[in-house]
Design goal:
By secondary structure, the chain is an alpha+beta fold. 50% of the residues lie in helices and 14% in strands. A hairpin with a 3-residue loop joins strand 8 and strand 9 (222-226). Pfam families: GerE.
Length: 332
């Protein structure tokens, strides 16, 4: 449990309010408590409300065998929720800052010409698509150690805009490149081909279900956060070491759970026809009982075939089985 709390501190420390994080760690340490006891456990109902409002806890409804419980939200979801709030706040603050500088500029113009003073910003909103392209190209061209990509939309070629030349992959300069994509993208054969092509360039590609955000990270120092699913709508350039460090921890957390994509392996003609039929039904999300009815076999026999499939493909979970099956062309 101590290691779990330490991971939460690394991931959320400095990003989540200290008092709220302390409450979250306490709830995380006991893996939840009954709603009836929550106020006493935290020293007041306001503390419970603060946790729920911050998106760090939720009430699990009563079941036949258990009363309602206040349970911790997974730390990766907490980080996503917090970062969305920070991005919105940063956007609001940026608009205020921009308005203030415009007024200062008007005052300076009225008083006479003056030199511009450099202003360092830890977060900057960029809405011009060409500027986003140039920035992305510059970052890719200067990465020395590692370039990370987390994406829930279809991968594209290196962004090009008028006057911008696509830069070579950081892999060509010896940098490590890791990319995680949303598993739902594999439903499109064209996307699977793109991911294969990306993997062949030396980028380490992995798949995970239900990615809720996209980001790019360069050398642990810079983060690019699209404000919407469309990069042309704007990105947030973040250079705060605290926020970038938390994003790096978040990426590594997902990386541990993600499934490697790319490379050769077993072919369809290496498997018995009945296992191919079972595999195709399982990829559709059908329960084992339903699959048994469809193929007219006992539930025990179907599960024995599923176990054999996992052993042959070298994977452990149902999601992994589906990803590898689609990737290797074992199903349509």
């Amino acid at each position: 449990m101590r290691s779990l709390e330490e991971k939460a501190l690394r991931l959320l420390g400095g990003v989540v309010e200290t008092d709220t994080l302390r409450l979250y760690l306490r709830l995380l340490g006991v893996d939840g408590c009954s709603v009836e006891e929550a106020a006493d456990f935290f020293g007041g109902a306001d503390q419970v409300d603060a946790l729920i409002h911050a998106g760090m806890a939720h009430v699990r409804q009563q079941t036949e065998h258990a009363p309602p419980r206040l349970v911790p939200v997974p730390m990766d979801v907490v980080l996503q929720h917090t970062l969305v709030g920070l991005a919105r706040q940063a956007l609001a603050d940026y608009e205020k800052l921009l308005g203030g500088y415009q007024r200062m500029g008007a005052l300076a113009a009225a008083a006479g010409p003056k030199g511009d003073a450099p202003v360092g910003q830890l977060a900057r909103l960029i809405t011009d698509s060409d500027e986003v392209s140039r920035l992305t190209s510059t970052l890719r061209g200067t990465v020395q150690r590692e370039w990370l990509t987390l994406s829930n939309h279809t991968p594209t070629e290196p962004i090009e805009a008028s006057g911008v030349t696509a830069t070579p992959s950081p892999v060509d300069r010896g940098a490590r490149c890791r990319a995680i994509y949303d598993g739902d993208l594999l439903e499109d054969a064209a996307v699977r081909d793109k991911l294969e092509a990306i993997a062949e360039t030396g980028v380490q590609v992995r798949i995970i279900p239900r990615i809720r955000m996209s980001l790019g990270l360069a050398d642990e120092g810079v983060a690019l956060l699209p404000l919407t699913s469309s990069e042309t709508a704007g990105v947030l350039l973040v250079q705060s070491s605290v926020i970038v460090g938390a994003l790096w921890e978040y990426f590594d957390l997902l990386w541990e759970r993600a499934i490697p994509f790319g490379g050769g392996g077993i072919a369809e003609n290496d498997l018995p026809e009945i296992q191919i039929r079972i595999l195709r039904l399982q990829v559709q999300g059908l329960a084992d009982e339903t699959i048994a009815e469809r193929v007219e076999l006992s539930l025990t026999t179907v599960r024995r075939h599923i176990k054999a499939l996992r052993e042959n493909l070298g994977i452990k979970t149902r999601f992994q089985l589906g990803v590898v099956a689609v990737q290797k062309g074992l199903v349509d």
